[in-house]
Amino acid sequence: MTPVLKHRDKVSQTAAAELIQAAAQAVIDANSARTKALAAVAKRPVDATAALAAYQQYERAQTAVQEAEATYMAVLTLWGVSRHGLAAAVGCRPATITRRIGQHPLATARGMDLYRLDGGGWGVRSREPQAVDTESAPNARACASATERVDHGADPATERVDHGDVDPAVLRAAIADAIEGA
Q: What domain of life does the UniProt record list for this protein's source (predicted)?
C-alpha cells in the first residue's frame, strides 16, 4: 500500500527533502553502533562475560535507534506522509506512530514553524506559550472594575428582576406583543 500523502507547503517540503538524508544516516549509524559489540562476538570466540557485555550494549543502544527512527518518521510526516499511511507501511497502528513521534518537533511543524539555521539545516520555532510580561500587562483590578459580579446560583425562572422605573403594565404589554409577533 502506498502511504497517503498530504499536500504540504513549499517550506515544509524543502525542509523535509533536505533533512531526510541526515535522518536516514542517523538510523544507519545508530543501528551500526548497536550491533558493533555483537558483531565482534560473532567474529571471534569470547567468554560469557564479554558476550553478556556485548548484549547489554546492544540493549542500551536501542534508545538511540528509536530516537533516530522517530526523527526519520517525523521528517516523513513533515514531507506529507500521513501517520495512518506510515503505520500501514510499517505494519503497526497509527497510535503507535503517534506515540513514537508525538513529541518530536518536526512531527507537528509546518511552514511557518520552520526556519533556516545559520550553519545550515532547519530549526523549529517553539509553539509553547510565552511568559506574560507583567509590567506591560493590564492590571487585573483595572480590568475587573467595569464588570459586575454574576451570581451563577440564581434560577432565572424564579428570580424577580427589578426593572427600575419601568411600569409593570407597560412591561407586560411589551412582552405580550413580542410573543404575539413571534
A: Bacteria
Sign of CA dihedral 7, 11, 16, 18: positive
Q: Tell me: the pLDDT tens digits for 66-75?
A: 999 999 999 9
**C-alpha cell belonging to residue 79:** 514531507
pTM above 0.85, yes or no: no
* Cα torsion 23, 25, 28, 34: sign: negative
* Residue 71 · residue 98 · CB < 8 Å: no
| Rounded CA separation 52/35 (Å) | 13
Question: Each residue of 11-36: pLDDT tens digit?
Answer: 888 899 999 999 999 999 999 999 99
**Phi/psi-derived region of residue 2, left when phi > 0, alpha when psi is between -120 and 50, beta in every other case:** beta
Q: Is 91 helix (H, G, I), strand (E, B) or coil?
A: coil
